[in-house]
Structure to design on (175 residues):
């Protein structure tokens, strides 16, 4: 990495932690992601940026839908580990949580979620090792009150790390 890039500066960016989910036929999959945001208001649209090799990316490319579950601050590390550090090709991540299928058919994680959002993909952009999925929001629902889990809280309080396919993996060394 370029010596002119101070990783501590990047570490100061504000992120949340979300579970981005989709399906490929009957196979449901989801993953923890921090690169998620609303990008337009009319129509309301979101973007989720995922590693190109992840199972969830494959599911979104196939189905053209995705959901975002906004995690609460109290989300336990075991839950984050299930969706963030394990591969959906090897296990059923949804076998360990409460979920429902939304209007689009995408799975909506209910455990530890403050709200859920569903989107239909309107554009896909490859960016180096990742894919940005832009989606028009077709449904959303507030589930409970609480504080959203930020990436700063995850690192500073929960002492969490980023998996190797996360956009922020190189920031693990910053403390």
């Amino acid at each position: 990495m370029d010596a002119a890039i101070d990783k501590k500066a990047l570490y100061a960016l504000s992120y949340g932690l979300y579970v981005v989910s989709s399906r490929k036929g009957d196979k449901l999959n989801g993953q923890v992601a921090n690169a998620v945001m609303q990008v337009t208001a009319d129509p309301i649209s979101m973007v989720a940026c995922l590693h190109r090799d992840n199972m969830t990316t494959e599911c979104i490319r196939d189905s053209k839908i995705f959901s975002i579950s906004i995690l609460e601050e109290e989300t336990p590390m075991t839950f984050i580990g299930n969706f963030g550090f394990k591969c959906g090709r090897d296990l059923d991540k949804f076998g360990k949580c409460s979920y429902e299928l939304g209007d689009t058919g995408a799975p909506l994680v209910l455990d530890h979620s403050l709200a859920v959002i569903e989107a239909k993909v309107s554009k896909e952009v490859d960016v180096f090792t990742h894919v940005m999925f832009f989606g028009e929001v077709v449904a959303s629902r507030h589930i409970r009150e609480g504080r959203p889990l930020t990436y700063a809280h995850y690192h500073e309080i929960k002492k969490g790390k980023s998996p190797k396919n996360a956009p922020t993996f190189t920031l693990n060394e910053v403390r």
